[in-house]
Amino acid sequence: MTDQARHPQAAIPGKPTAASRTTLSHIMTHNDTNLLGTVHGGVIMKLVDDAAGAVAGRHSGGPAVTASMDEMVFLEPVRVGDLVHVKAQVNWTGRTSMEVGVRVLAERWNESTPAQQVGSAYLVFAAVDADGKPRMVPEVLPETGRDKRRYQEAQIRRTHRLARRRAIKELRDRRAAEGIED
Ligand SMILES: CC(C)(COP(=O)(O)OP(=O)(O)OC[C@H]1O[C@@H](n2cnc3c(N)ncnc32)[C@H](O)[C@@H]1OP(=O)(O)O)[C@@H](O)C(=O)NCCC(=O)NCCS
User: Fold this and answer.
1) Is residue 60 in a domain?
2) How many angstroms separate the alpha carbon of residue 126 from the centre of ligand 1?
């Protein structure tokens, strides 16, 4: 088997991480609050999905859909009047999927104090064709030492995601085979 048959995406030129890295910035207003008066986590999650989706689309050169979002971490509350920056980049690519890493930073909109990290997340996007079927993505080419570390860490998460899915499927199949009803 040729290299191209084994790794068909080798036919698509790879893209450096920096080519699709994106920052989405947004000022938080009273429309964004929860019942406690701080910013609703779902508002932040939407910004995270939006930024990651832009990155996945730019990297894959077309539409991409969110397949999963994991390890969404909220480190500090976000407040009305915070200017939130959502920084996203492709950490890793598979055949048709990409892991996008996102960091969320916040600073007061009218102060020159440094922005503080308030959250982070990892999302998997699948590139899709016009029929919504997965299509191949260019390989991401990590450039800096930090990009390379993120690539390696993303591979670890990928291994764990697949192992977890497989283990749960096996358990469910076993229970179904034993006639156990939920
Ligand atoms: C994501 C989707 C395209 C996957 O389709 P599928 O028929 O299951 O295709 P595959 O099993 O070949 O998966 C495609 C890729 O996505 C990855 N993937 C699929 N589901 C995943 C999950 N839950 N977590 C992580 N990766 C996942 C696969 O590992 C594969 O990656 P690879 O080609 O790099 O190895 C399909 O499930 C879908 O359209 N989901 C809805 C997406 C959507 O509407 N998102 C918005 C949410 S509101």
Assistant:
1) yes
2) 5
Percent of the chain with pLDDT over 70: 95
| Residue 3 in this model has a pLDDT that exceeds 80 | no
Q: Are the CB atoms for 85 and 41 separated by under 8 Å? A: no
Q: What CATH number does residue 72 fall under?
A: 3.10.129.10
Tell me whether residue 167 is in a domain. no
What's the gap in Å between 125 CA and the centre of ligand 1?
A: 7
- Domain-located, residue 51: yes
Nearest to 87, CA basis, from 59, 121, 43, 137: 121
pLDDT band at 9 (very low <50, low <70, confident <90, very high): low
CA gap 157, 163 in Å, rounded = 10
Q: For the segment 21-76, what is each residue's pLDDT rounded down to a tens digit?
A: 999 999 999 999 999 999 999 999 999 999 999 999 999 999 999 999 988 999 99
Q: What angle do CA 72, 78, 81 make, to 5 degrees?
A: 145
How many domains does the structure of the chain reveal? 1
Indicate the top mutation candidate among 91, 124, 162, 166 to test ligand 1's pocket, ranked by most ligand atoms within 8 A of CB: 124
Determine the residue of 49, 96, 133 to mutate for testing ligand 1's pocket, defined as the one with the most ligand atoms within 8 A of the Cβ atom: 96
Is position 176 within any domain?
Answer: no
19: containing domain: 3-142
104-129 average pLDDT score: 97
Q: Whose CA is nearest to atom 46 of ligand 1?
A: 66
